[in-house]
Records
---
Amino acid sequence: MPREGQIGRILLNGAAALAMVYILLPLFFVFWLSVFKQEIPSFPPDGYSLRWFSALAEYREFASGFILSLQVGVIATFVGLVLGLPAALVIVRSQINGRGFFNSLLLAPMVVPGVVLGTALYVFQIEAEIATGLPLMGSFLGLVIAHSLIVVPWTVRLICANLVGIDRTIEEAAYNLGAGPITTFFKITLPMIRPGLVAATLFGFVASFGNLEMSLFLVGPGRTTLPIAILQYLEWKIDPTVAAASVLQIALIALALLITDHYVKLSRVV
Amino acid sequence: MASLDLQSLTKSYGDNRVVADVSLHVAQGEFLVLLGPSGCGKTTTLRMIAGFVEPSSGHILIGGKDITTLPPWRRNCGMVFQNYALFPHLTVAENVAFGLQMRKVESIEQRKRVKDALTMVRLEHLAGRYPREMSGGQQQRVALARALAIEPDILLLDEPLSNLDAKLREEVRVEIRELQRKLGLTTILVTHDQEEALTVADRLVVMNGGHVCQIGDKRDLYERPADRFVASFIGRSSFIEGHIKGQGLFESTDGLQLKVSREINLGPATLAIRPERCRLGASAQTCDNHLTGQVEFVSYLGSALDIHVRLGTQTKVIVQLSNQESVKEPQLGETVQIGWASTAGLLYPSDQGRQSYGGL
């Protein structure tokens, strides 16, 4: 008879294994599907082939979508960091009234459904275009602004979480040794919140890169992000090219995670 | 190295005066200890000297120069923080070099001074380590080396030993004291630990409730505590409540008539007696105060014995006996002779320093 503690451990391990399967099973099928030989997915596969990966390169919308997503993601992440870092400093350290409200406001884009956000921005950009005459609707700038909006909650939240844990006496020690506030910020504070900055960059980028719902409203003709390109492809075809595209995306993000983890242990920041 | 002067230094948060009108002079090369229970204002005083807390009023002078309004990075104070506050992303050598970089010391000189500072604390072999790879005691010494490397006017130590275990604490405080003497550093240490304070200090400042209770050397504080608080905080005392009845005569609330030699005004008073000034047994009869009492409690401390003796319904006195071969441990409930010289009693008017701390 197993003892009480052992039963608990078995149950816990079982639940953990179940969760792992739940998470990994779809990934497994995507990988499997991407090397099916036939065009219409069916089980069992007729054979295996890598031709869908080469098809990927030939399908121009995927390549251009990937490049656009990458550009938007990188710029939006940068903007999100530039806005998020000072905001986090104010939220964690200042004594200003309404910090709580400010914090909730900055986290709101994470909570508002993407469709709602997309509609609101769509209407806003049309109105703004009419009012100013600037070609905002469907523009690259409009897309970057919108993506910055969904990156900011991630950067603010992750940098805040890191800042809260920083011992302020370490900065006092820097003052004591003759470093002014600006030197202290760049030489002491920033290096200490590096894990938070790295996590913010990573999650901000992933949030932007993978965004579909909001972007649907904001892309213009001939300018689609990768998730939208995949969606549009699926409207006409169901061949394993899409699975191949997903595999490449998964591989890319996994690589980014591994590289990041090499410099900053992700288990410590998330 | 320089002298330090505090002039009527005060810090209030709203109506709460955490440091009230503190004035003192620290001579060049002197080791001064600010001693008091937590919340007595000692740390706030230190933080005002370092520049982290802005005084509400008063002045701070280093080497005769008023630095009250200078920001911390323009004052030349080396500080060792309670939690060491080492830079976690820098190596030991980089930590120590930080203050020198800020002072734009050229790199050859920098390397030499880092090496010297680390040699002083015997850590030159660990220069390449990161703080997290070191023990508490080693981190403490890095913090000390970092503060010394900038050749500060004043060295400030904020409870630097409180995170070390007892054995190490004893070693490190002797080390700090020797280093301080060798370098002739004007040093201010903040602590709540009286043993630590007595080991290292040239002079002590006892603080309570934001006020300075007494400034003096060890002997002053122990032999002539200025008030009841100091008598209870420095060393131990048995306190007897009562009143002054006449010339040299004190009557406790439960009616004991005791001879006293110090003069204060008639009226309610507290008599304090150090446990080691009390005698027990036959030798008690030679004292001008001798009484009989019952042994209520005996605690064996190794080198000494504490005998708690009840003299009256409200009067209990602790007698400390040094543990020599001839000492016979009294039994509980045993009636014993106890005595002390009238000159050993310390008298305080009862309205003064009522807050008892750590005494009886």
---
Amino acid sequence: MNIERLFQVLVVGGAIISGVSMADSSMPVSEESSALPLSETTEALGLVFCDQPGACVVGCDGKLKVKEGFECCWGTSCEKSE
Amino acid sequence: MPNDDLEKPRAVGGARDPTDVVVSTWGYRRLVELEAAEQFRKLSEGLATAYGKSEISELAAQASRDESNHASYCESILRELGCDVFQQKPPYEIVLGPRELDLRHAVLYAAVALSCVTETLSSALLVQMQRRTKWPVIREVVHTILKDEINHARLGWAQLALSAQKEEVSWLGPYLSGMIRGAVLSDIRPPVELASGVVDLSAYGILSPKETRNIMQETVLKVILPGFRKFGINTVDAESFSKSSLSAAGGDGTRMGSVGKQVFAQVTINDAPVPRTRTAQRLS
């Protein structure tokens, strides 16, 4: 499991749904917690769900795209915009 | 059995029958799902009343419906294991937030406790469960619930982001340790205790106590608390609490007291108020 991705999917993703833009969407890490090893569990976050209301927008080509900055997970139903 | 390669868990030597552990765990999760449905229903109403109807209050209403479905999924697993009689939902009082808070603050408190803390922890645990679960019925249920959990967690972070943009939210800081404690007490500890001392049951959606603690600690310290810091909430006390209570050395899951009354927002343990949230190793 990629723990930073979990942060992006949930925390930053939630902010995007609410329409609030986070100036700095990186994960703040305290000095203490940064010393902890990442567990191997987080690699599973490579899977993606994206059929979340508010997560997708219609692109110029008429196709659904994920809102800019929105991190999906497990089985995306729309293309991620570049 | 539904899978030729994977049979019901079997007892080894004189150990407790692992099938009983799997049944008990999924039975417990079913009850937690039913409770969660009520909590999200109440939260949806609170959000609509305090902040107005919005996409977020509708997400909470949907979460309530999801949780009811999750309870049905748990029943399907229990049926696969030979159970067809299900424990009745215990009566409990649902209160949004500590009583000293006004409605807006109480609703935000509840959204943070339920979604930002409990559902975020749940999502992290489910990710790992999904990797390890092999029994087809359970694997399908875990996948479905995980998909919902992501949205349940996001709605809390969405409300927090919205509130932080408009008003002061730093008052949440002193409550964080209690929220984390409440989540662990109510929903993590019982399944962890059930799984102690039995064979590896990860194929049936039950992570080991050690793995559960590791995932929880990592998620609290690297997702939940950093998320709160993003919105200007002080997490020093909560970080210290989480490191001590969830560490492998000190967190055997038996030293945190017990919850005697099922209340969403707050219960009393030895006369000390403790927020009542729910989490997973429950599945949502």
